[in-house]
Automatic annotation (TrEMBL):
Annotated PANTHER family: THIAMINE-PHOSPHATE PYROPHOSPHORYLASE, THIAMINE-PHOSPHATE SYNTHASE
One Pfam match: ThiD2
Location of region: Unknown: 1-136
Protein name as catalogued: Thiamine-phosphate synthase
Cofactor: Mg(2+)
InterPro entries reported for this sequence: Aldolase_TIM, ThiamineP_synth_sf, ThiamineP_synth_TenI, ThiD2, TMP_synthase, TMP_synthase_cyanobac_bac
Region of interest (Thiamine-phosphate synthase), residue spans: 137-376
Residue intervals of the ThiD2 domain: 24-142
This protein's encoding gene: thiE
A GO CC term attached to the entry: cytoplasm
Similarity section: Belongs to the thiamine-phosphate synthase family.
NCBIfam families registered for this protein in UniProt: PRK02615.1, thiE
Cofactor binding mode and count: Binds 1 Mg(2+) ion per subunit.
Length: 376
């Protein structure tokens, strides 16, 4: 039916016999771009609750729809399309949301590129219009990735900081199986070639479990392995410099030991801070404990997510939580555990119990909280 339809406005630069094919290409890719956008939009709306990102998807869809005229639709010939049966095995499986989003953003970008090129044959303004939309998709992709990272960070209450270990990957994977969503690669001694290889493997592992992956100390390594961010101590690179190198959408964490360091880290734009050492720890020899007093200070004053760190294990966890911590970071308690999955699950269950309790407390009258001993 397609090739019998007469174009209302035949395009001047193309022989008549090529026009139906170009119309079918435009029709198919207009559909493809809109479908891909719809899939991304649904996640922005229902998964991220971001009206801004969902709104941008919707606007792009509407702009694309304006080009999808009856003239182009009339050439559709699904039965005669030799490409409908062609699908790549990767289209059949999605390892998770991240991969689903990536695949669809890629599909939209490809479709927009096709529309830009073939559109030039169809309408004098179509090429430019779709080129601009393609750049808007790149921005959307970058904003979406940054937003996803921040949301995941907010949802992460347990942070595993790794140490050198013969079983590094097995331990990290065991913790991920226990529900861990935030991992930092920390190795103070390895050569760079080893660090790169290890960081790449950990990155892959974290991606499989949809966990955030942060690199300690090294902005260059974080960029090289496409990590989600970097953790910087007081003696490491200034936050502003790291931000310049990493761009706006990667996470930057900063260690703090006292109120002044906390204030500066937040003012300089840290996405999260470490608060410690809560207890003296052999993992960080020579660093005096900041103690539970500093944890109490953080609970009252920190305006970004903060992780109590230093000497925390299942035996003292309750004291740290009672001092006001809602997030903790640990090295030995998980890296040296006989059962890292179980320890992770224990930490997470206590942290989540606390969240529930605090949410409950916020909605109950004070008298009820006291008489039912819900004070911790
Ligand atoms: C979550 C977290 N908090 C603090 C640190 C310590 O960072 P830093 O003071 O730079 O010391 P090193 O870890 O580099 O020895 C951290 N790594 N993670
Ligand atoms: C890496 C690190 N940074 C700290 C800080 O206070 O900045 S404490 C610390 C080590 C934490 O190790 P563990 O859980 O084995 O005690
Ligand atoms: Mg450091």
């Amino acid at each position: 039916m397609g090739d019998r339809y007469e174009l209302k406005k035949p395009f001047p630069n193309l022989p008549a016999q090529a026009q139906p094919a170009v119309c079918r290409i435009l029709d198919a890719n207009l559909d493809r771009a809109r479908e891909g956008l719809r899939i991304v939009e649904e996640w922005c709306r229902f998964g991220l609750d971001s009206s801004e990102l969902a709104g941008e998807c919707k606007q792009l869809r509407q702009e694309i729809a304006k080009w999808h005229t009856q003239d182009l639709r009339a050439f559709r010939d699904t039965l005669g399309d030799v490409g409908t049966d062609l699908s790549h095995p990767q289209e059949e499986e999605r390892a998770g949301i991240q991969q689903l989003l990536q695949a669809n953003l890629c599909r939209i970008e490809e479709a927009l590129r096709v529309l830009e090129e073939y559109g030039k044959l169809y309408h004098p303004e179509m090429g430019t219009a779709f080129k601009q939309m393609r750049y808007r998709i790149y921005t959307l992709e970058s904003n979406l990735l940054g937003y996803q990272r921040q949301q995941k960070l907010l949802r992460s209450h347990l942070y595993l900081v790794t140490s050198e270990s013969e079983n590094l990957f097995a331990v990290v994977e065991a913790a991920l199986q226990g529900g861990l969503t935030l991992v930092q690669y920390r190795d103070k001694d390895a050569d760079d070639d080893v660090r790169v290889e290890t960081a790449q493997k950990l990155r892959q592992l974290c991606r499989r479990y949809e966990a955030l992956f942060i690199v300690n100390d090294r902005v260059d390594l974080a960029l090289a392995v496409d990590a989600d961010g970097v953790h910087l101590g007081q003696q490491d690179l200034p936050i502003a410099m790291a931000r310049q190198l990493l761009g706006p959408h990667r996470i930057i964490g900063r260690s703090t030991t006292n109120p002044d360091e906390m204030r500066r880290a937040i003012a300089e734009g840290a996405d999260y801070i470490g608060v410690g050492p809560v207890y003296e720890t052999p993992t960080k020899i020579g660093k005096a404990a900041a103690g539970l007093e500093y944890v109490r200070y953080a609970a009252q004053n920190a305006s970004v997510p903060w992780f109590a760190i230093g000497g925390i294990d299942p035996t003292n966890l309750n004291d740290v939580l009672s001092a006001g911590a809602e997030r903790i970071a640990a090295v030995r308690a998980i890296m040296e555990a006989e059962q890292p999955t179980l320890v992770t699950q224990y930490f997470l269950s206590q942290l989540s119990r606390l969240q529930t309790l605090r949410a409950l407390k916020a909605h109950l009258p004070q008298s009820h909280v006291q008489s039912n001993n819900l004070t911790s």
